[in-house]
TrEMBL record:
Alphabetically ordered keywords of this record: Coiled coil, Cytoplasm, Cytoskeleton, Motor protein
CC annotations in GO: mitotic spindle; spindle microtubule
Domain of life: Eukaryota
Any Gene Ontology biological process: mitotic spindle assembly
Coiled-coil annotated spans: 27-95
InterPro entries named in the record: KIF11-like (IPR047149)
Location of the protein in the cell: Cytoplasm, Cytoskeleton
Name of protein: Kinesin motor domain-containing protein
Molecular-function GO term, any one: plus-end-directed microtubule motor activity
Primary location group: cytoplasm
């Protein structure tokens, strides 16, 4: 029915053909537009690729710039760190110099105190030697006085004994003469006189022996006191000598410990100035 209607109606044929041509032209236009759009798409694709390449290049350039910037910042930080290290090193050297100076000054003060202590010890020793010499001189004087007293006492005893013997011999001679001259009548009286004389001489000898015993005891007491004084004196001398030796040994130990502490504090290789400082200390403390 449709075909028959199309064939019998010419207007319909015209309309159909017109529509056909219109559709064909539209298809051609659409195809051309599609082709143009394809070309535009290709152009856009190329531009996109170019933009992508530019973006990649800019990213690389930005990365290079970032690396350069980081390197520059790192170099700047390194320079700042180097400056800080140099400043710190200078401060450390100043501090080290100040510490060494303070140590040297303290050691010099300590050496001065030790020298003063040594001078005081020497003064004490000199005073002790002077006192010792004076005491020894006094002791010798005392011994000489005691010996002279003993000699005088011995001389007095000898003289007294000699006088007693002479008196006794003289009395015997007188009695002998009287006995020979008087005869038998006066024998009893002579014996009485002889008895009285012997009794008197016996009393005098007892007194003399008692006096001699007292002098002997006095001499023994003086000798004992002198012995005790000499013993205590020499004991005190030994104690003072030992104390002086201990003080000298202690001063030497303190000086040696100071040198050992100085050697531990400062290294010979890292700090060559320590050698000169130690030599100065040794020169100050000979």
């Amino acid at each position: 029915m449709v075909l028959m209607f199309r064939e019998s109606n010419p207007t319909f044929k015209f309309v159909v053909s017109e529509r056909y041509y219109q559709e064909e032209s539209e298809r051609k236009a659409m195809a051309e537009q599609i082709e143009q759009m394809g070309g535009q798409i290709e152009n856009y694709q190329k531009k996109l690729e170019e933009l992508q390449d530019k973006y990649t290049g800019q990213v690389r350039e930005c990365s290079d710039l970032t690396c350069r910037l980081d390197s520059t910042e790192a170099l700047k930080n390194l320079n700042q760190t180097s400056k800080m290290l140099a400043s710190t090193n200078e401060e450390l050297k100043k501090s080290q110099y100040a510490m060494e100076k303070y140590f040297i000054i303290s050691e010099q003060k300590k050496s001065g105190r030790e020298n003063k202590l040594s001078a005081d010890n020497k003064k004490v020793v000199d005073n002790y030697q002077a006192e010792l010499s004076e005491q020894i001189s006094n002791m010798f004087s005392m011994v000489a006085s005691c010996l002279s007293q003993q000699n005088a006492q011995i001389y007095g005893v000898n003289k007294l004994s000699q006088s007693r013997l002479e008196a006794h011999n003289k009395a015997i001679l007188e009695m002998k003469k009287k006995f020979l001259a008087s005869g038998d009548e006066t024998t009893s009286s002579l014996f009485d006189e002889l008895h009285n004389a012997l009794t008197s001489h016996q009393g005098e000898m007892v007194l003399f022996a008692r006096e001699l015993r007292q002098k002997f005891h006095t001499t023994m007491e003086q000798t004992h006191e002198m012995s005790e004084y000499i013993s205590s004196f020499f004991q005190k001398l030994m104690e003072e000598s030992k104390n002086a030796e201990n003080r000298v040994a202690e001063a030497n130990d303190n000086q040696l410990n100071s040198i050992i502490d100085f050697q531990k504090t400062h290294s010979w290789r890292d700090k060559p100035v320590c050698l000169s400082v130690l030599m100065a200390l040794l020169w100050l403390n000979p």
